[in-house]
TrEMBL record, chain A:
It is found in: Endoplasmic reticulum membrane. Residues 488-621 form the Ribophorin II third domain. Belongs to the SWP1 family. Residues 654-754 form the Ribophorin II C-terminal domain. It comes from Salvia splendens (Scarlet sage). The keyword Cell membrane does not apply. Subunit of the oligosaccharyl transferase (OST) complex that catalyzes the initial transfer of a defined glycan (Glc(3)Man(9)GlcNAc(2) in eukaryotes) from the lipid carrier dolichol-pyrophosphate to an asparagine residue within an Asn-X-Ser/Thr consensus motif in nascent polypeptide chains, the first step in protein N-glycosylation. N-glycosylation occurs cotranslationally and the complex associates with the Sec61 complex at the channel-forming translocon complex that mediates protein translocation across the endoplasmic reticulum (ER). All subunits are required for a maximal enzyme activity. This is Dolichyl-diphosphooligosaccharide--protein glycosyltransferase subunit 2.
From TrEMBL, chain B:
It comes from Salvia splendens (Scarlet sage). Subunit of the oligosaccharyl transferase (OST) complex that catalyzes the initial transfer of a defined glycan (Glc(3)Man(9)GlcNAc(2) in eukaryotes) from the lipid carrier dolichol-pyrophosphate to an asparagine residue within an Asn-X-Ser/Thr consensus motif in nascent polypeptide chains, the first step in protein N-glycosylation. N-glycosylation occurs cotranslationally and the complex associates with the Sec61 complex at the channel-forming translocon complex that mediates protein translocation across the endoplasmic reticulum (ER). All subunits are required for a maximal enzyme activity. This is Dolichyl-diphosphooligosaccharide--protein glycosyltransferase subunit DAD1. InterPro entries: DAD/Ost2. The chain crosses the membrane at residues 33-51, 57-75, 96-115.
């Protein structure tokens, strides 16, 4: 869709990145390797492992090629071969823009499915569109009859189209056909009507609706509409014929230019709805969730860029788009980094390629690097003639190709945090080998600290100056770091009122120190040291703390070089830092805790390369006793990991067991309980109980015996129940035994009853 | 005089009871003996509890109630089997005995369950 028809390009420059890392870089090898990974072909076509497509294309089957059986996959891909055309197109377009050659692997099968789609009568409008898009990259050999059939289908659907998507597909298909097959006649007779019907779906804020029934408008739809309208304009070009009357030709050209003017106004209205971040990134986002599912800002912005590119391609006039917004869009697309999904990568790369064709965007990478002395490659040597720090600026286009010849000049240096600036106007030397602009020498008065460098681009070719407009000056925050010297460090105990020195120790900073001091509450402690940059200038660090930590863990922090109520600052030179601790006033702050206090000094700054945190030794403080109302020192924090350690052992308190009787007593009573039983037996004997009525003949006697055995069995079951069984088992067994016992008992007792009744009657 | 009269009366009462009792049929005497045995066992258990304390109370209850229950069932058996009892004239004694056995078995199931 993008053609160089002598479009006027505008160059916008951007300085990105800080000295630490390149934040946003143009398209690079990481994009290429991501493309190869994300668009991996599954048996002949590009399937995409993307769950999101299920919502919009229910026919699509999403599966993992390693899991599914290859045979099944093959059959599916044959049956639904045309289903993957959209992904195939996205993969091919991405590879084409990135310059990756990978087409041969899938060319045959893709061409086959393209041909099938164009021949088949059951293909949907979208399938035609996708097939033609794939063909525009692969340039397969197509059957001319199929092409004619496709053309008539597209024209018919265009005439009957009512929704934006239908217009888009049919017009897009016709434009692609026109590009690929010059012999096919795709000119539109009623271009005006189609143009008006597409325009009718537009809204005053620049967005478009998808159809007249659907009131929701979106930027995505706007992009689609712009592409469709641009397609209408390009298709409406008539055949130049000798029989044309000049009047018709003029009216046609007038109508065309009016259409283009309305399109340009639409684009400008659309740009009014652009959103932005504070760092100058511009993007398009959707306010509503449209009918095609949620569109991300990436896909909406990509759609709008495609639309604008199509309009730019269809007309030979300039589209005066605000350069700042184009640069903001480029920042947005590059700011995505390397996307994780195939569709996002396609949108990003596609949009960048169209953006390149609309405007050549120069992307500048700044990195400040310390050059190491060649003699000692491991050592960072700070020499006084400051030729060790070099600034590197690389200028390239969005897709990584080199920029036209230009030079970069350092115009001004501001000290960060102050308003004064020095005007430099120094040109950076261009290193042709690496393609970078190098700042080799820094101005003389630059010392350790934070600065803002202001750069400007100057073109060598005066023609470029006509067509390119430089974006003005851009600023980069720079930290110049160095090793700070600390001299004259000493710690002194001063005697109370007289101020005489009692104990003085010299310190080596930074270095190992083990100072042992002792003081009482009437004395003062003074710490002083000087700091200077390598060039001898005074240096004031951001952080200078002295920490006194008691052995119990309570610590106190004092700022060095700060004026407070209790401290006194003596500035001897501009660069020296002093801390004076008056213990008399600090007694209460120390919670009246006497003992050993460890001293620790911390000095640091962002621009200081040798920031340090060091123990200096200890001071034995003798403080008076605490009065009753003094505050207690705060409780020390418990080690947070002790929460997960083992807890104290719990001793359980059990209920005291009941007092049991003596064993002998229990056994005695066991014997006593059995005594009545024997008494019963004796009584039975005395009464003359006998077994004379026991049945004699076989059958009744067996029943009788079984009856008694049954009772005995039930009693045995009860003992077992008491000893180890549970109720349910017992009940089950009892059920069976009970049945048996009933039967047997009935037999026995009825026999006995009949015997006794016989006796009675006799 | 009165005291000796009462004792004499008591003796005479006791003798008449004894002779009347001798006239009861043997099977009733066996049942009476059984009842006596059950009650004696219950009394011994209560005495034990009185000495030792009622800690496993459920065991005590189950022991005592088994004795008492079986005694009660024997009493009802005696009533039903007694030929002089007009109410149960038509009930064959074997049937009464079968009821006695069945109820005892159920009682002992419950007792064993409660024994713990």
């Amino acid at each position: 869709m993008a053609r160089d028809l002598g479009i006027l390009v505008i160059v916008v420059l951007v300085l990105a990145a800080t000295c630490q890392s390149a934040v946003v870089s143009p398209v690079s090898e990481s994009h290429r390797s991501a493309a190869l990974e994300l668009f991996s072909p599954a048996h002949g076509s590009y399937g995409r492992l993307n769950i999101n497509t299920l919502e919009t294309h229910p026919l699509r089957i999403v599966f993992d090629s390693q899991i599914v059986d290859l045979v099944f996959q093959y059959k599916i891909s044959l049956a639904l071969g045309h289903v993957y055309l959209e992904e195939t197109y996205e993969a091919l377009k991405t590879f084409k823009v990135l310059g990756i050659e990978k087409k041969h692997a899938i060319r045959t099968s893709s061409c086959a499915s393209v041909a099938d789609t164009l021949k088949s009568t059951s293909s949907a409008l979208k399938d035609f569109f996708d097939a033609l898009r794939v063909n525009s990259i692969l340039k397969c050999e197509l059957n001319s009859e199929a092409v004619r059939g496709t053309q008539s289908r597209l024209k018919d659907s265009l005439n009957g189209a009512s929704s934006l998507i239908d217009f888009y597909y049919s017009i897009g298909g016709l434009v692609l056909l026109k590009e690929q097959m010059s012999e096919v006649d795709v000119n539109l007779g009623d271009a005006d009507r189609i143009f008006r019907s597409i325009k009718a779906l537009g809204q005053s804020d620049g967005r478009w609706r998808l159809s007249s029934n659907n009131p929701e408008s979106s930027n995505n739809a706007a992009g689609i509409a712009l592409e469709a309208l641009a397609g209408v304009i390009s298709l409406a070009t008539p055949q130049i014929d000798n029989s044309w009357v000049s009047f018709d030709f003029c009216s046609f050209v007038l109508a065309n230019s009016m259409k283009i003017t309305t399109l340009k106004n639409d684009i400008l209205k659309l740009f009014d709805g652009i959103e932005r971040y504070d760092d100058g990134t511009y993007y398009f986002d959707e306010k509503h969730v449209g009918a095609r599912g949620h569109q991300s800002p990436l896909s909406s912005s990509a759609s709008v860029v495609r639309g604008i590119a199509a309009v730019a391609a269809a007309t030979s006039e300039t589209l005066n788009l605000p350069g700042e917004k184009i640069m903001g869009l480029a920042k947005f697309f590059l700011g995505v980094g390397v996307p994780g999904s195939a569709q996002d990568l396609y949108h990003q790369i596609d949009a960048l390629s169209y953006l390149e064709n609309i405007r050549h965007v120069l992307w500048k990478l700044t990195s400040f690097r310390t050059l190491y002395n060649k003699a000692h490659p491991d050592l960072k040597i700070y020499s006084s003639d400051h030729d060790f720090v070099a600034a590197l600026v690389r200028v390239s286009t969005l897709l990584g190709s080199p920029a036209p010849t230009l030079s970069v000049r350092l115009m001004q240096i501001f000290v960060s945090g102050s308003k004064d600036a020095s005007v430099i106007d120094q040109e950076l030397k261009f290193d042709a080998v690496s393609g970078m602009h190098v700042l080799e020498t820094l101005p003389k008065n630059i010392d350790v600290g934070s600065y803002i460098f202001s750069f400007e681009v100057i073109f060598h070719n005066p023609e470029h100056k006509k067509t390119y407009v430089s974006g003005g000056r851009t600023r980069v925050l720079v930290h110049i770091t160095g090793v700070i010297k600390i001299d004259n460090a000493e710690i002194v105990i001063l005697d109370g009122d007289r101020g005489s020195v009692e104990n003085q120790k010299k310190l080596k900073l930074p270095g190992d120190n083990a100072v042992a001091l002792s003081a009482n509450h009437l004395q003062k402690l003074r710490l002083s040291f000087d700091m200077s940059t390598p060039f001898g200038n005074a240096f004031k660090p951001h952080q200078a703390f002295l920490k006194l930590r008691h052995e119990s863990g309570v610590d106190h922090i004092f700022l060095v070089g700060n004026s407070g109520k209790k401290f006194e600052i003596i500035l001897v030179k501009a660069s020296s830092l002093v801390l004076l601790l008056d213990f008399l006033g600090l007694v209460e702050k120390f919670f009246y805790l006497p003992g050993r206090y460890n001293i620790q000094l911390t000095v640091g700054d962002a621009d200081m390369e040798n920031s340090f945190l060091q123990p200096l030794g200890f001071v034995e403080l003798d403080l008076p006793d605490a009065p009753e109302k003094a505050t207690r020192p705060p409780p020390q924090a418990v080690d947070p990991y002790s929460r997960y350690g083992p807890k104290a052992e719990i001793t359980h308190i059990f209920r005291a067991p009941e007092k049991r009787p003596a064993k002998e007593l229990s056994l005695t009573f066991l014997g006593l309980v059995l005594v009545p039983f024997f008494g019963f037996l004796a009584g039975l004997v005395q009464l003359g109980a006998n077994l004379k009525n026991f049945p004699k003949s076989t059958v009744p006697s067996t029943f009788a015996i079984l009856f008694h055995l049954g009772i005995a069995a039930v009693l045995a079951l009860y003992t077992l129940f008491w000893l180890k069984l549970d109720l349910f088992t017992t009940l089950k067994a009892l059920g069976f035994l009970g049945m048996f016992l009933m039967f047997v008992g009935h037999k026995t007792l009825s026999h006995l009853a009949s015997t006794s009744s016989k006796l009675k009657s006799v | 005089m009165g005291r000796s009269a009462t004792t004499k009366d008591a003796h005479a009462l006791f003798h008449s009871l004894r002779s009347a009792y001798a006239a009861t049929p043997n099977n009733l005497k066996i049942i009476d003996l059984y009842i006596l045995f059950a009650v004696a066992t219950a009394v011994i258990q209560v005495a034990y509890m009185a000495i030792v304390g009622s800690f496993p109370f459920n065991s005590f209850l189950s022991g005592v109630l088994s004795c008492v229950g079986t005694a009660v069932l024997a009493v009802s058996l005696r009533i039903q089997v007694n030929k002089d009892n007009k109410e149960f004239k038509d009930l064959p004694p074997e049937r009464a005995f079968a009821d006695f056995v069945l109820c005892n078995l159920v009682l002992h199931l419950v007792i064993i369950n409660f024994l713990g």
